[in-house]
Records
---
Amino acid sequence: MTNNKQKPQESDFEYPEDMEFFVSLLGEDQLDKNKFDFRDPILKRREFAKVNKSIMAKLLADGRNRCELRLLESCNDTGLVLDHIIPLSSNELNKRIRKLPTPRGKKIARQSVGSNHPSNLLVACPKCNGYKKHRFIKRVGDKWLIVKGDDPIWHFNMSNPPKIR
Ligand SMILES: [Zn+2]
């Protein structure tokens, strides 16, 4: 499966610039269609509840029995959980790329992005998982880093400047 990755198409995304973001976030070689699922997050969460235990058992059996995020000093390997590399839903793209204003008394709209496929899952300790929340992470060398608002990744050269729709 890993050497036969299918790439998502720009048309799979709600906005074409989002694909460009994921190219720069993951790198071309990690841009796997399996990592994405644009269906209703409610559906995805329901499905995740059903497959969570079996995927976790498989990853543990593969020897993945340590927190792979390692974001915090207090990180330890007890009570490991599955963590979505690309969050099931996020408003970061609307916030950072399209710079949508926050509606009064509300939050910026979320988009459905990540999948429950094992290629989009990591083994993590509850502390790192809770700290990461719905933010994006990227692999830098042998470390996962949280993508912050001032990260150059949000300022890539976009072939199609974002349109507010
Ligand atoms: Zn951890």
---
Amino acid sequence: MLQESIPELAKMVEPDRVRKEVYTDPQIFALEMERIHERYWIYCGHESQVPKPGDYTTVQVGRQPMLMVRGKDRKVHVLYNRCPHRGNMICGDRSGNTGEFFRCSYHAWTFQHDGALRSIPMMEAGYAGTRYGKDNPDCSMKRAARVESYRGFVFASLAADGPSLLEFLGASKIAFDDMCDRAPGGEVEVVPNCFRIIQHSNWKIFLENQLDALHPSVVHQSTGRAAHEVEKDIAKRTGKAPLSYHMLSAFATVTIDKWDNFQTLNYPHGHCILTGYMGLRPKDPDTLAYEKVMHNAYGKQRTEEILGVNIHHVLIYPGLSVQSPLQQLRAVRPLGVDRTLTEIWHFRLKGAPEPIYRRSLAYYNLVN
Ligand code: FES
């Protein structure tokens, strides 16, 4: 039906131009939600966000408010954040611990951590003769059709059919391998808060910008210059310039023709890798101490392979941009045709020395 009302859908995109309706038409947006965001694997969060049974965090998948929760069996479940009785939202907070079970705040139905109905108060007196009851699966909180995680990063798909998470990720799984392998412990843990930014533009604008290597030396030049001034000032006062500022000042020193050397590698399902990065292997004492811990964990040869991975960031279509060498990711959540929420999360390398964490945290705060 929707497609019929947009008869020229196939002609909206040409090799060198795109019709503006692709970014502005609410009907096209609805179609994208139905066919892409509510069907593909969407990032929900990291397992370390819900370490204890009953811990939950809420998340938007397509148009659906969902929640990710740790069960008593230690499994991570992803449920629709909606009571099956009258549609009341179950968890109003962004995150928390629900205790032994979920309890709806409207008529007090309770649910297990996996969404299964636990009890209906006043069952006999209030609901006699209805189809309500434990035998009816519609009386349980609805679960995401599929949930899988890779190296601690949890994804859900609202479609029952489709490729497995690993098949879907394909080559783009390097985003998580690169981030986790840089930890001497082989794992990362979430830094428990994120930047939330609502952009008044279509979700695709953000993704396209992530792969636009021509803009940084122009758009971010003023940032680079300002960072360079601060960097010089700190160096003058302390004799040492912090690397976090240096990573920003590079925007002013890496010229547009050098950014053009960055390569975009495209993969099935729309995933892309933007290669190259500047100055991530300095020879300061903090980096050398970190490399020593890495040598102990992995041996010299494997450490060189890990630290030599040449990635700026990885785009996992349709909603994730991972900057693995700096342990941050951006989850893109479309809110409407012209409104997009971006959550920017930072991760800590387990087993890495504290100064390495402080440095990447400083960059995370500066760049965002
Ligand atoms: S709406 Fe949840 S118990 Fe009635």
---
Amino acid sequence: MAEKHFKYVILGGGVAGGYAAREFATQGLKPGELAIISKEAVAPYERPALSKGYLFPESAARLPGFHVCVGSGGERLLPEWYKEKGIELILSTEIVKADLSSKSLRSAAGEAFKYDILIIATGSTVLKLSDFGVKDDAKNIFYLREINDADKLVEGIKAKKNGKAVVIGGGYIGLELSAALRINSMDVTMVFPEPWCMPRLFTADIAKFYEGYYANKGVKIIKGTVAVGFGSHANGEVKEVHLKDGRVLDADLVVVGVGAKPLTTLFKGQVAEEKGAIKTDGFFKTSAPDVYAVGDASTFPLKMYGELRRVEHVDHARKSAEQVVKAIKVSEEGKSIEEYDYLPYFYSRSFDLSWQFYGDNVGDAVIFGDSDPASPQHKFGSYWVNNGKIVGAFLESGTPEENKVIAKVAKVQPLVESLEKLSKEGLGFASKV
Ligand SMILES: Cc1cc2nc3c(=O)[nH]c(=O)nc-3n(C[C@H](O)[C@H](O)[C@H](O)COP(=O)(O)OP(=O)(O)OC[C@H]3O[C@@H](n4cnc5c(N)ncnc54)[C@H](O)[C@@H]3O)c2cc1C
């Protein structure tokens, strides 16, 4: 098979791949210079939609509605856009071998690709229960990462209308999926081992609100235990979930959200890694010549905190993609740009809730506002104070202006005199910064 050569290849047509393509077009690109190679069958899209609008029982989000870059208020890049710009979108193509020394890639179907510059944007893959030794091959056990997973889940939900769903995991996917299944009138039980949901970000106080809110919506929550197996019907469909504490839950459908890991296996031994992803500098350059890594697949210097971090959130995928293309383009002119100076930003939406978080969740957490799950306004937040300074801020049900205010406070890191006073002042403190 003839080998195809491109000046730039982006491996992975997800969020970072799409935003990088837009930045290349902005910076100037000749037709035929850039290719995006992606395992998925569709042009880059805003992945967060899969666990939210995509699962709505009515007026569900569908492509082409959420192709990048609509998630950040930008232009929607339809497949025709790539054609117009002379960008080759090579879809349904999984790369199974990468040889960085000869700058070549090979697909599962045997196609060969050569590049001058490679941007690795392979994202993450879900952790499976089978990775922990739990057999998960019964029908109607779902994972969610890509659009074809979401399509299977939608079919599963339709087939088990008003049935019983068990959601395994209490993180982002667990919380968003429990809400989506409940909105689809399923009887939902969440199971997770930790003492409260989203323990990597939420404090016990924050989690108390969400758990109470979910309970009021009819979601049952079982904490402190894990799934150790499944029972199935004669037709292979899941029937029950076996928990470590001995309980058995009836289930017509199971969704598992127990984490994800960066997809770096293709490059093992060829490029330096750190904290489970590919190590880069502040321009997303890796240890291999002419190879860059962005989004979930990168571990980069988080300048504000003076350490290397991995961030598996959409905002970083977008911004790292823009940074890498700018860095590549200026380096071709022998110039350079400022290194990446990222303020971590995460968000989630479920039911009629919507939160945003900026900064770092270390130090003392100070809750403020109305965090009663039964309250109609449920506007509350939390600051994190470390070494006398606010380093992180979280807000539920903030307006766009209020969200800007908490982003600023996390960036500016003002000094705090009294935690008690801060709690009383709440958002008022941040708006004065
Ligand atoms: C369901 C869901 C909901 C989410 N919701 C939120 C949210 O609300 N807020 C938030 O901040 N973040 C959210 N995230 C996380 C966010 O979507 C990711 O951080 C972001 O998509 C990372 O972008 P990426 O480009 O690095 O990887 P991805 O968007 O995952 O794209 C990687 C692409 O590379 C392709 N690929 C991988 N390996 C190969 C290969 N060998 N050959 C060819 N192609 C390959 C994949 O098929 C995929 O298309 C969510 C994630 C998921 C799965």
---
Amino acid sequence: MLAIICHHEPHFRFCLLSKESVDSGPDKVSNQPVVTALVDEQNGRRLLAMSEAAKYSAVEVLRNGRSVEIRAVEGDDGERLLEAFGRASAKTIHRRFFAVRRLTEEQVGFFVNVDFIKHVALVVSVNENMKHPIVGGGRYVVVTPTQAEVAFAVVDEYQGQGIGAALMHHLTAIARKAGLKEFVAEVLPENAPMLKVFKSSGLPMSTKREGGVISVTLAL
Ligand SMILES: CC(C)(COP(=O)(O)OP(=O)(O)OC[C@H]1O[C@@H](n2cnc3c(N)ncnc32)[C@H](O)[C@@H]1OP(=O)(O)O)[C@@H](O)C(=O)NCCC(=O)NCCS
């Protein structure tokens, strides 16, 4: 049997902030109760998709004619990610994390060390004076065997150029190959750009207002 099981992760947004909740070791995994043949088959697909996702790279041309690379996050992207975080406004960070915070080393480690099965992350890099900073990223974390929670952030000066839509498109392609059936997300009601990206994806979408957030479900 494959070693990975898609069990209920704690909520993605908090899962991102708690390494302990993400690192389910082998013992914890083998204690999971229900493992069906369906899950094995899905995990097989996910392993195949993983090898492709881990090498993912695509070039996109933005609305302003500028080219960006959308690629799989790499283990040594930590510094670049922190720089991107430093370039993002408080509003952008609040919309992404629902709080304004600094990233700890542990959180950065979580963001860059992904397995491309339960956790898939793409970053957007641009050529700025021969440097290649990260200016955006999108990721999903599998929360049930068929469902993953998705989240995005784009540095303010690069917003509105189509990066969000492109990330959505590429993550959708990866998730479909991995056999996932749904993306879910929690979005602040005032976050029109994120809701627009979801609507414009063309995926069947349903929304539910829950507390102070909109829970979005997209069929893949
Ligand atoms: C949400 C986000 C990732 C979108 O990225 P982006 O690169 O700006 O997205 P795009 O350029 O592909 O599209 C944004 C869409 O929102 C629209 N938009 C921008 N500001 C808007 C506003 N105030 N009201 C309505 N629509 C707006 C744009 O016109 C565009 O729609 P269009 O394609 O029909 O023109 C980015 O705005 C961001 O990082 N926001 C802060 C973090 C965040 O909200 N994360 C989501 C957590 S789930």
